[in-house]
Amino acid sequence: MYHKNVAPNDLNAFWMPFTSNRQFKKSPRMLVSAKNMHYQTSDGREILDGTAGLWCVNAGHCRPRITQAIQAQAAELDYAPAFQMGHPIAFEFANRLIDIAPSGMEHVFYTNSGSESVETALKMAIAYHRAKGNGSRTRLIGRERGYHGVNFGGISVGGIVNNRKMFGSLLTGVDHLPHTHNLAKNAFTKGEPEHGAELADELERIVALHDASTIAAVIVEPVAGSTGVLIPPKGYLQRLREICTKHGILLIFDEVITGFGRLGAPFAADYFGVTPDIITTAKGVTNGVVPMGAVFVTKDIHDAFMNGPEHMIEFFHGYTYSGNPIACAAGLGTLDTYKEEGLLTRGSELADHWQETLHSLAGEPHVIDIRNIGLIGAIELEPIKGEPTKRAFSAFLKAYERGALIRTTGDIIALSPPLIITKGQINELIDHLREVLRMID
Ligand SMILES: Cc1ncc(COP(=O)(O)O)c(C=O)c1O
Description:
Aspartate Aminotransferase, domain 2, binds pyridoxal-5'-phosphate, 2 domains, four-stranded mixed beta sheet, alpha/beta
């Protein structure tokens, strides 16, 4: 075990990701251990995990099957290359993933993160069309406010200004659908909002502008998470699917947060009854324990690559750690845990209680919207004039002081607890938030 108690003056070397480094290093928030629904801090406090880490620890923390699987695998086969070589557990895990994947998904490509899954999917889409003789289909369509990780493809199709504006001209040949957030019409909706399905028709306008023969794929998060939980209007995803099919455009669902039970169904594709051509995943694939991502594709996409001489590599893409044995072991331990405890559908049993408890915050200070789906929730706060994000950040700090981990993005509080949460713990989390909203300026 390495040092658990790190003094503040030791913190300089680590340039922390997506963090206000100077603020953090003045008053650090250190998590030193975790079990099930709770973290333990370096000052000996228990913190209720309201965010499943970063939307990833779906089965809760330090689950025995996962821990044991990793330990055993590390002692048996620590690393093996996956380029022109194989190891059994990578194939076993892929089969197990396909068993739970939405119907139509028949193959899995391994990555190490959500960002890499997105890059992989975008490259696959362009290369697929080329393999089919449609080499002019290279354009990629994302959506305003979309989050698809932090690599160049992902930020190009993504639509979060702060993630894009510092990084130059990004990928060319990208266009964006409008986002679907509409407070004026949909505020305080429980579940899917009524208004906005017609925003999918904007794809027709984009097709008319560029011509379908130049467009490879549309990528969207079925439920946009990191931008602050934007839930698709009723019928929106179905319409997007229809328009993509009509024009021969591939539809990619970025299920990095919605995959593995977050909505109360194994995948958002199952929940909404809409089947995309490619699904990107990460996070819950190993319960967040070992970095891993997985891209699911249909037989049609996979088979389009399987041509040419057999000694030739079909897809010039992959990572040193694609299908890493320890990640696969963690994944198998994770799927066993999900199965034994019914976690891929447990969210549907809790969704009503989650919804009603969350919406009981309506009327508390600063709250301008509350939204929810499955075991995801968001509370949007009125920003402080001239100081956007400050109010939500204060809420985050106060919640942590009180013993709850929440996540904020802009002035939105996002919640996504582990799927093992009890009704009592849901009440506890929301009670913390009620107190926090009453405390902050
Ligand atoms: C929808 C979506 N795509 C991609 C990513 C990027 O995943 P990672 O941070 O593992 O690269 C995230 C992360 O939150 C995400 O929510």
